[in-house]
Amino acid sequence: MTGTIHPTAVIDEGAKLGTGVVIGPYCVVGAQVKLGDRVRLVSHVAVDGETDIGEDTEIFPFASIGHRPQDKKFNGENSRLTIGKRNVIREHVTMNPGTEGGGLITQVGNDCLFMASSHVAHDCNIGNNVILANNATLAGHVHVGDSVILGGLSAVHQFVRIGAYAFIGGMAAVEKDVIPYGMVIGERAHLAGLNLVGLKRRNVERDAIHALRNLYKQLFLQSGRTLNDRANALNAAAKTAEERYLLDFILNDSSRSFCTPALDKAQPREAA
Question: Active-site residues: which are they?
């Protein structure tokens, strides 16, 4: 191993360190921790438990990674936290491993940004290119798809699913599932249209965006049937990959209902 370990850092002899790892002042690394190549712990970082951190990830001061879940049902079972490659984890971020009730694993994908004081609870599953702004928090068992953005001070209820490319507004309290490409806002979050800015930034074709907008209107701006019935009726006619993904997300089993438009704000907004 070639790397840099500050003399004030405490590294358990059981920890596995990749090539080029940099561990700054006053960091603490536990016995079951694995740090991939070129991982950098800036300073005062505490990593414990069965935690695997992917290469080129950078963790800033006072982050607490892999410590005991904040779940009173946790009884010391052997559980894991897996963090992918090239993530940036800023100051005071907390991430907890899984529990027996959630498959014993918390998973974070690649190329994510966790801004200061954001929180990832036990048994969460986070995709790639996700951003949690300052103080955004995920309760246990939350699933977050690729390229989701959570605004500052937002909070997501346990077991909620957030589909890929969704946008969660700042200070939103999300108690229900959020459709892929959706945008939700509000103290008790409601659906406010599609995340059109995010779709355009990711070069989704214009025709596909128009198809999604039409699908959104048929799903959420019509009355007379349940959301599930409308999704089933529209499923056979779906042509684009984006339409199929959105409908599959709705039709898959979920323990929660969905964020829908507020009655007085039913018209979709045009921007994230």
Answer: 122-123, 140
